[in-house]
User: What shape does this take?
Amino acid sequence: MTNAKGSLRFKRILLKLSGESLLGNQTFGIDVEFITKIADTLVSLHELGTEITIVVGGGNIWRGVNGVQLGMDQVTADYMGMMATVMNSLALQTVIESKGVPTRVQSAIAMHEVAEPYIQRKAIRHLEKGRIVIFAAGTGNPFFSTDTAAALRAAEVHADCLMKATKTDGIYTDDPAKNKDSKLLKNITYTDVLAKNLRVMDGAAVSICRDNNIPIVVFSIADTENIIKVVKGEDIGSLIQGG
Assistant: This one.
């Protein structure tokens, strides 16, 4: 796969991967074959000159909301979810580095034995040195989603775009699995996403991107090559910007 670096639409990206996306064909944990495909795509994108940061969710291992439903205190349940994201981040780091690309995991919760602490200036320096940076443990605070963490880190490292990889091919007017008449929205403003409560990302995440003028692209991860297509500016998924 070749392409002139100057033709890339986005130079520095924040890729948001849900924990569920790592399930592949499994019902729990990490599908090694699928995470390898993601890593292969990220390595190809890195070779094109893109500076890559990543936030991974933890839903394939644990979701804080599930703990709350079982009667757990939300603070404890959310911290367990943050630790699940660290496990996913370390797994992704291992696979990427096995392919020759240096990668750093920065955790919002102190875990010095396995990850660096999150430091904004250090993260940017890693990018400038050609390393992929994975942000783990969300924001480090309960009550905040990994979507919010992704938007926050995208703003802090001055990303050109927040790319949200999902199971669907974009944003719809309604759940396409439940409503066959729902329509794909190719272009939509931040304000409309919030006003129409489209739930593609939580309100805090959308607001952070709006306030920092960071476009959001929502696309399907079923084909991992879509990651590269978005960075090249191809018409993939739904674009949130303006307004």
Summary: Residues 5-240 form a domain with the Carbamate kinase fold (CATH 3.40.1160.10). Residues 8 and 232 are 5 Å apart (CA to CA). The mean pLDDT is 94.
